[in-house]
Each structure stands twice: as C-alpha cells, then as structure tokens.
Amino acid sequence: MAPGTELADLAREAAGCTRCPLAAHRTHVVFGVGDPEADLMFVGEAPGRDEDLRGEPFVGRSGKLLDRLLHEELGVGRERCYIANVVKCRPPDNRDPKADEIAACRPYLEAQLRLIRPKVVVTLGNFSTRLLLGTDLGITKVRGRSYPVGDWHLVPTYHPAAALRSGGVVVAEMRADLIRAKQLVGWG
Ligand code: URA
After folding, report:
1. The pLDDT of residue 114 is above 90
2. Stated pTM of the model
3. What's the rounded Cα separation, in Å, for the pair 156 and 141?
C-alpha cells in the first residue's frame, strides 16, 4: 500500500483517538501535514490554539517563522516536507505535554516515521528532541550537529517559539541547523 494511503488511514483512526485526557478538550486532532514521501520531516511539540482550530500543525506565529526560514534557507515550501508534533492534541492553555500524554501519542509519531521514511528529521525544541534522541539533555546542549537514528539523521534545533522570544543568535543558529538538514537531505 502507498505510504499516503496508510498515512491517511492512520489520520482517520487518530481523528477519533481517546487514548489520553487531551481528547476531551480538543477541537481537532492535529495529525500532520505534507508530502507522505517527504525526505525532510519536522517534529514540534504540540498544537497551539491556531493549530487546534485549523487542524494543521504550525499555522500560527511559530509556523510563520518556520515557513519563512524554510523558504529562505532551503528554498522550499512546507508542501515539500512533512510536519508533525509529539502530541496531536492541544494541551489546555498551551501547557507542556505530560509524560503519559506523550507515551499515549508516541505510536502515532512512530508510525508516521515508519511510513514516511524521511532521510532527515529536524526536531523543534526539547520535547521532540528528547523523545527521538532518547536523551534528557536540553536543546542548547545537543544542537549544532546531526545524529544517526535508525535509517535517518536527526538534526535538533530550537523551537520557533524560542526563536521568536529570543531573536538574534537563536534565529541564526536555527538557520545554521536548517542548512545542515538541507545538506543531509541532498538539497544543496
Ligand atoms: N508549536 C508546536 O510545537 N507545534 C505546533 O503545531 C504549533 C506550535
């Protein structure tokens, strides 16, 4: 079966998910968006308000920055990539996702990785980096290089919300991380 078909089946299943308490508060399950055969995948933390309302990841302020950096550093739009989150439902008041919520949602992310088979995964911020790299270290300690994980390379970088808060150096380091991802994908 084509990855797109299996991914669409999984998205339909996730749309009715009640595996954790976040199901009670959501407007939409924000499963993921993009090319089901993308070479480059981004993994964020959890949907915010805009994403919950639209049912699509990274459509608010953080997403606008991500789109801009993708365009400026890689010369591509989001449709060339696949974008997902560690948890697919919005935590109330945008609090951090809890360990049991991450554990309940993890099989969806693992299935997305298995079906899409990206060459490179850029983890945005601490939650996705810790989960996929299997580390307790924070993003500032691990970013600046890539890591082989199974069949793909993991490139950790800041969450765009941190870049919006901090500006300057953080944005510049994010740009450098995206260039590293671009080279690993073979786009330049
Ligand atoms: N922050 C995230 O981590 N994911 C989104 O989809 C939006 C904001």
Report:
1. yes
2. 0.97
3. 10
Please list every protein residue whose CB sits less than 6 Å from any atom of ligand 1. 44-48, 51, 57-58, 60, 62, 85
Residue 183's pLDDT is 98
Quick one: pLDDT at residue 98?
Answer: 98
* C-alpha 159 to ligand 1 mean position (Å): 8
The tokens for 146 are 């890539």
pLDDT of residue 188: 79
DSSP 8-state symbol, 94: G
- The reported pLDDT for the residue numbered 2 is 76
Give me the helices (H) in the chain, please. 3-15, 49-54, 61-69, 99-116, 126-133, 139-142, 160-166, 168-185
Q: Among residues 54, 57, 122, 117, which one has the least CA distance to residue 87?
A: 57
Cβ neighbors of 171 (< 8 A, separation 6 or more) are: 69, 163
